[in-house]
Protein 1
Amino acid sequence: MRIGIIADSACDLPGDFIERESITILPVTVQIGQAVLADVRNEEATMNFLSGETGARAFEAETTPFTVQQVHDLFLGRLIHDYDYVFCITTTRTRSGIHDNAVQASYTILNEYRSVRSAAGNNTPFALRVIDSQNVFAGVGVPVIEATRMRAAGESPPKIRAHLEHLAGNTHAYMVPPDLNYLRNRIKKRGDKSVSFLSATLGTALDIKPILHCNKGETGPVGKVKGFAAASKKLFDFTGERVAAGLLTPTVNLCYGGSLDEMRTLPGYQQLREVCADRKVEVFESFMGLSGLVNVGKGALVVAFAAPPHKFG
């Protein structure tokens, strides 16, 4: 059986991995003023787009996920010919409309695919499952990586589906944002009041960096540390402890809103790599996608993994 895997472009994964595993990306369109770019996970295009005046206004960005019709057309135009079963793994529905759009499109796709496949001489069934990752950024990448592992191992679609749905509730993404004022302006633009003006101002003045946690579609602070480097080290050290305690998948997924070489110089990074190597846990690293960058700002660090319930600290 030919199994396909789809993710939206807010899913942070290395470009060579996406290409090697033939993962289809559903683009998110980002508009800042009159400038518009479809996020297809191109680092050079992203950085060019966020340069100059456009970059200074990034917190004003409007993001638009693939519409129901666009998802429908993608499947009927190509994917139902290339695959027999497709997993579409999306950013949490609490933060993006792509999940609901994909679900709505799936209803018409499953009603219409037979005639399209039959016209191409293929009368075998086609199935589609939309999975809410219940996470963001690098957190979306964790179940995508696991889906590729299970596909390569020859696992059946029902087994893959059950495992991905279990992982969705047990995937954790932790983020250190570099600029609280930017984050406050952005979430205010989105109608979220979780970072007040006072806390943003004091945090910036004192160089306090929060550590944010996303799990089961909910995001909130779990710690605060003075200085970005110190906060990054605390996050890397904590991740190493989780790796040593045992993960649910052999994967740690990192993304960074800047040069990966810069991320690799952060304190605690090398120690985390050593712990992962000792435990045979594979580390994935990618440049944060455009939709992530406009939401949290340049220089953000995100670490994601699947693990049993735990507390940060």
Note: The first helix runs from residue 15 to 20.
Protein 2
Amino acid sequence: MDLARLVRGRRMTRRFRPDTVVPDDIVLDLLDLAGRAPSAGFSQGWEYVVLRAPHERELFWAAATPPAAAATGDDWLAGVRAAPVLVLAYADEPAYRARYAEPDKARPGADPSDQDWPVPYWLTDTAMGVMLLLLGAREAGLDALFFGVPGSQHGAVSKALGVPDGLALVGVIALGHEEQRVGGSARTRPRRTVEQFTHWGAFGAPRA
């Protein structure tokens, strides 16, 4: 599939079939794609936790689900819980700070502990890896969903999975096959056109 068709055909799946298997070799191929994302200073500050076995996934859902949602039940949650593979994407901020304290990156005379990061590129770079993984899933014939974990549950998830301190959970990719098409915001909100979000020469200026 060519890139343009791949990008335009990608969408999020919110209800997965519970009876499907995603082979490990496909997961490894997708993670290899994610590992080829660009990164500041070639820091490559990302880590991925793959959950395949039912008890692994249940451990995640138990830690990730706020008590109120667990008590009342949630249709979205039920659909996504059926996904046979979950991939958690973590960003490693300390890896970037350590990389930019090295001689070829450090600013002359600057204190390595006083680094200015107006954009947290450990999050940006990890997110680019996630996008590559999502596109790869589409090409491999898989359905996928990228979703976030409530902020209140980040610590519980990391603790349950033995994730070291200093790593930030960017989000989770669910992989599998769609059971039923469920509409999301893309069905109720129009896609912005290129003309609406492109500015030529200055913000708000049209193409001459």
Note: The first strand starts at residue 46 and ends at 51.
Protein 3
Amino acid sequence: MKRSLVKRCVFWLGGLFPLLISCEMAWLQEDPDTSPEVVFDHLWTDLRDRYAFFDHKGIDWEELYGTFRPKISPEMGGEDLFDVLGEMLYELRDGHVNLTSGFNRSRNWDWYQQFPSNYNENVVVLSYLGKDHHRNGPLYQQFLGDVLFITYRSFAQDITEADLDGVMVRAANARGIILDIRSNGGGNLGNAYRLAACFTDSRIKFAEQRWKNGPGAQDFTPWSPMEVTPRKGPKYSGNVLVLTNRRSYSASTFFAQMMRSLPNVHLIGDQTGGGGGTPAFGELPNGWIYRFSATQTIDLEGKQLEDGVSVDREVRLRRTDENMGKDTIIEEALRILRETTQ
């Protein structure tokens, strides 16, 4: 019996030994090459294959390789390498393009920095929401007479079905709704779908989308429809005005396009900042993380959402009104709703 046990143990260990060796070989694999040249080429090549807007923006990625690759040298430090990569990515003119290291994050905010803000949060809070405003999750509301004013600060703040039930019950007898998403920088697109679903009784196509899937300028998947489906709970079928500005970006741009596709909704203020490409991510050999736009989205007229969604009525925030504690865009929305629903 003892000999049999010994044989079984030897057999088991013999079978385990190759596994241990293979694991050791896996553990001893060489680290990836993190030289500046390899890191640069990895980033440039992946964006060549998967970034969606070279053709639309008239960007020659090969030319940029010739501009920035000579700036890379074997002896350069991490911060210098980061600066070169960040400068190259800046040329994409895209708020969804970032490079993140342990010491910095590249970005391009030209989509809003060159334009007036058309928003003053203090005025909105003090003069329109007030101390007694109602809250259903991130949806803050106040009745302005018989118009329900709703502000939503970020699509990164999740909306539950219970939140929407509460808002829709309050909105049932409202003359109209003002929905303020100015300076909402985006977040979770699912929240945009959930909120838009409160304002339609039928499935509505609002856009089409395709993914970049190869190195060629026209290497894309076929276009796929994007649709809003009505929610099962309470909905609102009255007039809705959505307020936007240049800082309404990404998921806010998608939401603005969803809403402007509905017959009972109009947009006023300033066009959104864009951000019509779905972000994708990658990791460089040295561990830095990068993000870029991997899709194109077009509206029902074939216009790129990357360029922003236009409004039905352009209204600018007047400094004189602002100094008096008034928001020009909200006041215009109130006037429109009260005149069109008399």
Note: The chain has twelve helices and 13 strands.
